[in-house]
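> @MW can you paste both from yesterday?
MW: sure, first one:
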Amino acid sequence: SNAFYETLRNANEKNIMKDVAMFSATASAIATMVNEFHKGFLDEYVENMCAFLDYLINVKKYTCITEVCPYNEPTWAFMDDTGYVDLKSYYSLCKKLDSFLRECNLRDKIKLNLSDGNTIKGSSEIMDNLKELSDIYNTHSYNYPSDCDNEDPYMESKALSKKANGYGAIHTFGEFGTNACVGSYVARDIDT
């Protein structure tokens, strides 16, 4: 946790804006969480997230925190054992977070960075369902080979940006790499 606070302290000093993104540990933890959403866990998750943000922004005075991503890569995180993605739970999470941030007087201090969809279709669907809430949509893309001519990623970005702008938000690629990934960390097409 010292590294976390040191990162925020340095960002504050250098006026570098930060997004606080929430993660879960394992697929089984995620599955448990999705199942528990309907039993009150969603409220607890959002309340804890807001308490954490309140502490960082109002107590510790980290003015560098300008965005929150309530759940990283929901298209993976809310997938059950059969491969079904239950984004309704993600939408509920985002709506509750927006409401709770307003109750805690934090919503005017922090932007909602939503989506993290990993395809045009996934990002587009999330945009349609959260258009009233999101300030920023971001996509994680590992869909193209390293030798592509950049036309397809450019057109993908252009289409998603146009859609986000139509909802009064912006679109960005939060992660972008090639389709030569093995697991989460290894890319077969580059030397490191």
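MW: second:
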Amino acid sequence: LDSCGDAAPATDRMKALSTLGELYMGRMDEPRARRTLEQASELALATSGEHSLSYANSLNNLARLHLFIADAPRKAEPLIRTALEIHRQLRGDRDPEVVGMLLSMADVCDAVGKSDEAREHRRRAAATARVLSVAQQRACDGHLQTFTEHAHQRGDDDTVVELLEALVSLREATCGCDHEQYAVAAGWLERFK
């Protein structure tokens, strides 16, 4: 990243920092991930302002770091709440990224013991995904699948069932009942019920 130098446009540097931070998270290198994602967030704030998608996405990345790598869900909670609010103000509720952030918010709420609020965020994410365009629903499919895997890794079978029901419904709408992706999700749902 240092080869980008100060001459690199801020947006390119911000994207590079975010990508590098995600790479460090994938490698479970929490100190480097934190430092890099904080730099990306500071750059997004300085160049785009506090009411920008860049800043919201950088806060979302920091929240994911605190939740999944640093095991600090209380630090993640205000970050994801702010990111979700900014994104909703700029794009409205009918956006695939809002669905992903609602699912992130649900994970954070579960981690801090707010299970009723977590269920409400998952319900809203599933309801939002159902009313989006087919192209947007396909983007939501990935979010639902990822968060279902997170819940399965935590051993949270109730959440797995809840998310699988949303995924089956979404795949029925986008692919049809005869499609392989629908059959896979429906098969998993049957195993967990």
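> thanks! Confidence is low (pLDDT under 50) at residues 1-5.
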